[in-house]
């Protein structure tokens, strides 16, 4: 796969105008999506149909250990993207600097994934099919099953990924604005849950961990909304107060007020983009009455022509 992050034309059309190129490179947001398919190693057979319900039976063809390496790649790829970005659509959005290293890491893992599939798994699967024909059934597998062809199985073990820049442009809401708005909403919802937990119970280590995690996430994305930066400051103050409160169970009023202030900022940020959408419906609606207005215009033109020229 080509290195998308070295291709200037790939990102050129999406960069915001009137900004320094260095700032653009640092502030670009990239959607990284991957799809890792792993064959189940089982067959599904229909046993009977009773009253419209199909009874299916699943039977194992190869040991799960033969496919574990591919499942591990999927877990590792998901953990890598979740660490560097935020879930969005069918992928993860992250800063350009993080996306560069993620894309290169995924490319390395994909090569190893394909090597494991073609050079390790495929010969083992073919040997397993041959052993079955000789009456040797792998441990933990069903004996009387039909084994699909090697080509069929390999097509169901795949690793694909791609990367796209979120567009930022004036006019209607862009994908960049949509992501930032949705991100603010998720932050606000998480903080609301933390607030409820803090109001109703003691200040626990789990609660402090949630506050620390949310503060760190706000600091990562603070360059895209002022509310994220200000919210992180409120949470920093909140955490310092919580550390003093926790051993002694003192009054939590100041701590809750900081959480409330941060929540209001994030909640406002999640609503700003919706209210700022341009209103384009009125001009379209006015031009959508063709018959009457056109007829009036034609009559006016004929009247004007009769006043200028004599018709016999």
Shape summary = elongated
Count the beta strands: 6
**What is the C-alpha radius of gyration, as a whole number of Å?**
30 Å
Q: How confident overall, as mean pLDDT?
A: 76
Report a brief summary of the structure.
The chain is an alpha+beta fold. The chain has helices at residues 8-12, 21-27, 68-84, 96-133, 150-155, 175-200, 205-220, 226-248, 253-275, 281-286, 290-308; strands at residues 29-37, 42-50, 53-60, 86-88, 91-95, 158-165.
Verbal overview:
The chain is elongated and about 75 Å long. The protein contains eleven helices and six strands. It is α+β, with helices and mostly antiparallel strands. The N terminus and C terminus are likely disordered. The relative contact order is 0.10.
Which SSEs are present, and which pair or pack?
Elements: H1 8-12, H2 21-27, E1 29-37, E2 42-50, E3 53-60, H3 68-84, E4 86-88, E5 91-95, H4 96-133, H5 150-155, E6 158-165, H6 175-200, H7 205-220, H8 226-248, H9 253-275, H10 281-286, H11 290-308
Task: Looking at this protein, list some descriptive labels.
13% strand; two-stranded antiparallel sheet; disordered N terminus; alpha+beta; 11 helices; disordered C terminus; single chain; 312 residues
């Amino acid at each position: 796969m080509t290195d998308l992050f070295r291709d200037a034309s790939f990102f050129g059309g999406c960069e915001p105008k009137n900004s320094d190129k260095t700032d653009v490179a640092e502030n670009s947001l990239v959607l990284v999506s991957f799809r890792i398919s792993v064959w189940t190693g089982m067959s599904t057979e229909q046993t009977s149909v009773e009253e419209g319900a199909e009874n299916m039976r699943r039977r194992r063809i190869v040991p799960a250990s033969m496919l574990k390496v591919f499942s591990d790649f999927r877990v590792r790829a998901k953990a890598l993207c979740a660490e560097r970005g935020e879930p969005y659509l069918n992928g993860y959005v992250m800063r350009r600097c993080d996306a560069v290293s993620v894309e290169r890491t995924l490319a390395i893992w994909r090569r190893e994934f394909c090597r494991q599939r073609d050079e390790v798994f495929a010969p083992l699967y073919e040997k397993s099919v041959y052993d079955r024909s000789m009456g040797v059934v792998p441990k933990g597998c069903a004996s009387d099953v039909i084994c699909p062809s090697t080509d069929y199985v390999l097509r169901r073990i795949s690793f694909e990924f791609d990367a796209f820049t979120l567009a930022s442009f004036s006019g209607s809401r862009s994908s960049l604005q949509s992501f930032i708005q949705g991100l603010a909403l998720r932050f606000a919802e998480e903080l609301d849950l933390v607030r409820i937990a803090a109001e109703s119970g003691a200040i626990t280590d789990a609660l402090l961990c949630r506050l620390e995690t949310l503060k760190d996430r706000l600091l990562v994305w603070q360059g895209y909304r002022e509310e994220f930066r200000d919210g992180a400051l409120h949470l920093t103050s909140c955490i310092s107060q919580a550390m003093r409160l926790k051993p002694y169970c003192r009054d939590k009023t100041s701590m809750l007020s900081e959480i409330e202030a941060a929540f209001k900022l994030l909640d406002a940020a999640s609503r700003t983009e919706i209210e700022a959408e341009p209103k384009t419906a009125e001009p379209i609606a006015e031009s959508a009455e063709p018959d009457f207005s056109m007829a009036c215009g034609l009559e006016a033109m004929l009247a004007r022509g009769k006043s200028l020229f004599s018709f016999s």
